């Protein structure tokens, strides 16, 4: 084990925490509040933000869409530059927070912000960012990554920098009251797959990393079995904390990481618009089957520690699929609106993005991706 771990985001967790944002944003700063399609106006979050920002100079930018687009975000970049904004406050789910990460980097860059996404430029400076999370799923509220889509080319790519860590993240589970079943299930599946990407690889020697990941997986599995109580505050606050811990960087530090499911899933969303978590749910079980020789030791451990199952790693994959299906997330690619070019589109895009050898051992090739996608299209 040999790594640097650093996470500077202050977490404000619990009821009524939105008002604490004033402790982090200097009154002299000009603030841009960024949000999505308006859910924050239905659950009192917008009003709470407005009250907290009394006495501040602030503007707002709305309309950041799920799978935030470069095209929409560039309109906000212009506002930030023209209005000389000093601080960006993201209020929403992963899309709004990711979009805001793009804004804080692109606003201090003279070139085309897509340079960060195609990897030709690294972020060298960024405006300060704060986050009020309304949908637990991605962990974006306290990590360094952003995933941005370019509509004109059907691309969905990611970039990251320690400069993108939000200064603070407000996690008030009460804001989840307006989330529908689809988004709650998406959040649970996304957080589960994030943990798997950093755990279901090959054995490592750290007892803490495996134990921590197993606790997150067990927690999420428990929530799936307790689905009928998903509207209770204790269910929702558990999802909020579990999803945060799944991707705040710690469980992946110093251990092998996979991320092949995510790389394939992002391309599926770019072409066919599947919700992020649903793209993962169709890919992950088949990827585990195709890569079974590499995965079987950790699958066996997961079976024992998470699902309390006998020594049968193939059954663990079935348990994962069962779990997703039980909360209404299909693992069959044919249940989504795809076309007969899906294998060609996804493998071509992965190739164009340099993703021809992905996974923790770099052995998920384009041939294997084609096999995974063909298996995911169940009759
Ligand atoms: O736009 P609004 O009106 O806010 O509605 C949103 C949106 O329609 C709604 N919503 C959010 N909070 C709500 C609510 N509706 C009712 N009540 C609330 N409290 O939910 C819908 C989906 O929101 P979105 O932000 O798109 O969902 P999510 O948080 O799942 O984010 C997905 C995005 O994050 C990226 C994904 O690729 C995708 O673009 N990811 C980001 C990661 C990261 N930064 O580390 C990692 C992930 O693997 C992922 O790739
Ligand atoms: Zn994800």
Low-pLDDT residue spans: none
**Ions, cofactors and other bound molecules:** 5,6-dihydroxy-NADP, zinc ion
* Helix fraction bin: 40-55%
Number of helices, counting only DSSP H or I runs of 4 residues or more: 13
By DSSP, the count of extended strands is 8
Which range does the strand content fall in? 5-15%
Q: How does the overall form come out from the CA principal axes?
A: globular
Structural class estimated from helices and strands: alpha/beta
Task: Estimate the mean pLDDT confidence.
Answer: 97
Sequence of secondary-structure elements: EEHEHEHHEEEEHHHHHHHHH
Written description of the protein model:
The protein is of the alpha/beta class. It contains 13 helices and eight strands. The protein has a six-stranded parallel sheet with strand order 1-8-5-4-2-3, with helices on one face. Strand 2, helix 1 and strand 3 form a beta-alpha-beta unit. Helix 8 crosses helix 9 (276-290). It is globular. The relative contact order is 0.11. The mean pLDDT is 97. The chain binds 5,6-dihydroxy-NADP (NZQ) and zinc ion (ZN). Zinc ion binds at residues 138, 190, 193-194, 262, 276.
Keywords:
379 residues, alpha/beta, 6-stranded parallel beta sheet, two-stranded antiparallel sheet, binds 5,6-dihydroxy-NADP, binds zinc ion, ADH_Fe/GldA, methylglyoxal reductase (NADPH) (acetol producing) activity, BDH-like
Blueprint of the fold:
Layout: E1 10-13, E2 30-34, H1 45-52, E3 57-61, H2 70-83, E4 87-92, H3 94-106, H4 114-117, E5 129-133, E6 145-150, E7 155-160, E8 168-171, H5 181-197, H6 207-225, H7 233-246, H8 260-272, H9 276-290, H10 292-307, H11 313-326, H12 342-352, H13 366-376
The structure holds 5,6-dihydroxy-NADP and zinc ion (ZN).
């Amino acid at each position: 084990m040999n790594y640097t771990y650093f996470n500077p985001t202050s977490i404000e967790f619990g009821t009524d925490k939105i008002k604490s944002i004033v402790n982090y944003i200097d009154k002299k700063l000009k603030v841009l509040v960024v949000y999505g399609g308006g859910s924050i106006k239905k659950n009192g979050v917008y009003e709470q933000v407005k009250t907290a920002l009394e006495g501040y100079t602030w503007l707002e930018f709305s309309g950041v869409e799920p799978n935030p687009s470069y095209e929409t975000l560039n309109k906000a970049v212009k506002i930030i530059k023209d209005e000389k904004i000093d601080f960006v406050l993201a209020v929403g789910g992963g899309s709004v927070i990711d979009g805001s990460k793009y804004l804080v980097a692109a606003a201090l860059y003279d070139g085309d912000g897509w340079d960060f996404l195609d990897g030709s430029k690294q972020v060298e400076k960024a405006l300060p960012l704060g986050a009020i999370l309304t949908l637990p799923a991605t962990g974006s509220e306290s990590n360094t990554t952003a995933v941005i889509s370019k509509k004109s080319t059907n691309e969905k790519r990611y970039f990251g920098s320690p400069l993108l860590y939000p200064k603070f993240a407000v996690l008030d589970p009460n804001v989840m009251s307006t989330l529908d079943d689809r988004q709650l299930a998406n959040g649970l599946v996304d957080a589960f797959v994030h943990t798997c990407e950093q755990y279901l690889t090959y054995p490592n020697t750290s007892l803490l990393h495996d134990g921590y990941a197993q606790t997150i997986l067990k927690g999420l599995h428990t929530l799936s079995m307790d689905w009928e109580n998903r509207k209770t505050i204790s269910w929702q606050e558990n999802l909020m904390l579990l999803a945060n811990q799944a991707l705040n960087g710690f469980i992946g530090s110093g251990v092998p990481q996979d991320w092949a499911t995510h790389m394939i899933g992002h391309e599926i969303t770019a072409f066919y618009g599947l919700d992020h978590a649903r793209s993962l749910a169709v890919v992950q079980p088949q990827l585990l089957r195709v890569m079974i020789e590499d995965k079987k030791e950790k699958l066996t451990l997961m079976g024992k520690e998470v699902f309390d199952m006998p020594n049968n790693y193939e059954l663990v994959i079935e348990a994962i699929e069962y779990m997703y299906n039980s909360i209404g997330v299909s693992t069959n690619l044919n249940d989504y609106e795809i076309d007969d070019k899906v294998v060609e589109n996804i493998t071509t895009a992965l190739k164009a993005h340099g993703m021809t050898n992905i996974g923790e051992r770099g052995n998920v090739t384009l041939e294997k991706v084609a096999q995974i996608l063909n298996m995911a299209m169940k009759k």
